[in-house]
Write a structure and sequence with these properties.
By secondary structure, the chain is of the alpha/beta class. The chain has one domain: Spore Coat Polysaccharide Biosynthesis Protein SpsA, Chain A. Helices cover 35% and strands 21% of the residues. Helix 3 crosses helix 5. The protein is globular, with a radius of gyration of 18 Å.
Length: 236
Amino acid sequence: MNVAVILAGGHGTRMGIIDKPKQFIDVYGKPILIHTLEIFDANLDIDAIAVVCLDDWHEDLSIWLRKYELNKVKWIVRGGKTRQESVRNAIEVIKTSCNGDDIVIIHDAARPLVSNRIIKENIELAKKYGAVDTVIPTTDTIIRSKDGNKIFDVPVRRELYLGQTPQSFKYSIILEAHDKAVKDGILDATDDCQLVLNCNKDVYIVEGEKLNFKITTMDDLLLLKAIIKLGKIGEI
């Protein structure tokens, strides 16, 4: 079984919008979260979906799931105080339905342009290797500074990638990684692959896409609207 875990438990404070988190912002008649869920619901490789959601939005989400007939969503999971806690909550909720070799595809709700190719390769390579991350090569030189005032070093660009989601794992591996993190006192990790690496397991790479960007700022939101509008025009 392939289970998508969609993370919609954040507050999105960097957007500067105070009345709602970014994943619930309306874009052409539906929330960003629903745009993302529709991709996974329609994907033939996805068997079930768990949505990690802020408590105050569970009722709204339930209404949207019925309205847009998103039938693969089997669990609405309580969001945690941190990303790590949110993911762990989902892992615990789906435990009774998963065996060790089932694949868990963890994806940000605020990346609504993820392609079916990325999802497919995540599943295929996670089955083969156990753990994968979606990344794209950086096209810019990365500058490292320790104090924000002066350059500390300039890493070799060909060795650097920008992380995206999905991050996908065999269920047994992601469960072990989160159990070990809690045991080791790690409670606020922002990346599941780092937790897997802490278990001395390899994480392999899936090639991402520039369009699989995360909605973080108003500029990102404007770009998303433009891309969706162009797509609609292309369908006419």
